[in-house]
């Protein structure tokens, strides 16, 4: 019988590695890394200092997902290969996979996929964000060959949510309810008949939930609660029944400080609500584990170090990564607290001929339009900071540096000596 589920690749890493390196390597990035993540180009008033956050770009989970996609194409050269959504949230990578003949399955408005045209002869790649339990089972029933690139950090969160549901706790998930990862994570609770979930976007939504639980004056009515969280709760969710035992989890790419604050707030609210009962046991009502992935944390810490270090924040910060990339958006929000920040989807948003930049201001909604800024680089010698989300390859970081320097009329050679300090 043909094997139909693969999670550990096909042993073709050495075969695809040269191609991946040639497509995503950057000599400029290697130069910056070799010189302590900072270098200079130009002289006098035209001098540009580039400072790169010390953790940036591809994380292990993304690297692995991209590699498995390339391996899949090599392993099945004659089969139709489809991808469930996007492998990661980076337009350049997804365009490259499309160019390799990999087809993209996009969800309907309600988040469901139409698998009606799939057959057992098809190969389906599950993205780094994972897939919902329902979608996974539907694909298995069709008999497709499944290549699972789900990130290990996401799997760790799934284990927590699974355990919560098994033990009768509602999974309260800090995340974006339309994000693929959050939908897949929430679905883990539904493997059990009494499994429940509720998704909150931020502390404000968390307080709405906790105020209802505590009966705070002015809290949402039951009808108001159901209307507010209708699309963020499991079917049949009852706030009068399902908020007494809560386990907190999170989308792995959320701001770690926000997730920890939300967990602490939930714990305090549950203690206030049930702490006066005879034989009160906090563990019977509340569970929490820090499930922010290490790569997300490292990139957030590196940005904080760049902003708060002895040199102070750069004059301008450029954050590179897809607008629908959660971890990239949060990097932009962190940077914007310290300096002028431009979140660009791709290096091509920087136009060296016109001297403009197309970007989305940090913290704006996903459906907000791009805006364009002229003369966005301050005059005189400047310091430009750079970082990139976990789904951005090095070649796009290097290209951004080159485009910024071209605005100043400075040619860049990754191997040339640095300008004098």
From TrEMBL:
Enzyme class, first EC level, given as a word: oxidoreductase
| Keywords in alphabetical order | 4Fe-4S, Iron, Iron-sulfur, Metal-binding, Oxidoreductase
**GO terms of biological process kind:** dimethylallyl diphosphate biosynthetic process; isopentenyl diphosphate biosynthetic process, methylerythritol 4-phosphate pathway
**Top-level taxonomic group:** Bacteria
Which cofactor(s) are needed, names only? [4Fe-4S] cluster
Which pathway does the protein contribute to? Isoprenoid biosynthesis; isopentenyl diphosphate biosynthesis via DXP pathway; isopentenyl diphosphate from 1-deoxy-D-xylulose 5-phosphate: step 6/6; Isoprenoid biosynthesis; dimethylallyl diphosphate biosynthesis; dimethylallyl diphosphate from (2E)-4-hydroxy-3-methylbutenyl diphosphate: step 1/1
Q: Name one GO molecular function term.
A: 4 iron, 4 sulfur cluster binding
Q: Which InterPro entries match?
A: LytB/IspH (IPR003451)
EC number(s) reported in the record: 1.17.7.4
Q: Which NCBIfam families match?
A: ispH_lytB, PRK13371.1
The name this protein goes by in its record = 4-hydroxy-3-methylbut-2-enyl diphosphate reductase
């Amino acid at each position: 019988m043909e094997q139909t589920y693969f999670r550990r690749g096909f042993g073709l890493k050495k075969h695809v590695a040269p191609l991946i390196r040639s497509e995503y390597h950057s000599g400029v990035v290697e130069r910056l890394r070799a010189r302590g993540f900072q270098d200079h180009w130009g002289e006098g008033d035209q001098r540009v200092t580039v400072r790169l956050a010390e953790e940036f770009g591809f994380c292990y989970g993304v690297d692995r997902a991209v590699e498995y996609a390339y391996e899949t194409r090599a392993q099945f050269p004659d089969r139709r290969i489809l991808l469930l959504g996007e492998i990661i949230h980076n337009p350049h990578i997804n365009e490259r996979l499309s160019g390799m003949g990999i087809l993209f399955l996009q969800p309907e408005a309600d988040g469901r996929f139409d698998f009606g045209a799939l057959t057992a002869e098809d190969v389906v790649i599950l993205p780094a964000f994972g897939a919902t339990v329902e979608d996974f089972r539907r694909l298995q029933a069709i008999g497709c060959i499944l290549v699972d690139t789900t990130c290990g950090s996401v799997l760790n969160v799934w284990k927590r949510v699974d355990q919560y549901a098994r033990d009768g706790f509602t999974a309260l998930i800090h995340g974006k309810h339309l994000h693929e990862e959050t939908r897949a994570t929430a679905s883990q609770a539904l493997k059990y008949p009494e499994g429940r979930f509720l998704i909150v976007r931020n502390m404000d939504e968390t307080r709405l939930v906790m105020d209802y639980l505590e009966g705070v004056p002015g809290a949402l009515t039951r009808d108001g609660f159901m209307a507010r969280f209708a699309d963020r709760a499991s079917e049949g969710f009852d706030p009068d029944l399902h908020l007494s035992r809560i386990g907190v989890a999170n989308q792995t790419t959320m701001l770690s400080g926000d997730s920890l604050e939300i967990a602490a707030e939930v714990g305090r609210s549950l203690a206030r609500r049930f702490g006066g009962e005879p034989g009160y046991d906090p563990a019977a009502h509340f569970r929490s584990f820090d499930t922010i992935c290490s790569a997300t944390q490292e990139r957030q810490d590196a940005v904080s170090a760049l902003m708060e270090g002895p040199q102070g924040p750069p004059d301008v910060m450029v954050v590179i990564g897809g607008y629908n990339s959660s971890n990239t958006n949060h990097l932009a929000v962190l940077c914007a607290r310290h300096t002028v920040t431009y979140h660009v989807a791709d290096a091509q948003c920087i136009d060296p001929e016109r001297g403009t930049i197309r970007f989305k201001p940090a913290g704006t909604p996903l459906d907000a339009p791009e805006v364009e800024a002229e003369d966005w680089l301050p005059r005189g010698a400047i310091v430009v900071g750079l970082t990139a989300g976990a789904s951005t390859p090095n070649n796009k970081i290097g290209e951004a540096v080159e485009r910024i320097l071209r605005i100043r009329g400075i040619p860049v050679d990754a191997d040339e000596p640095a300008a004098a300090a």
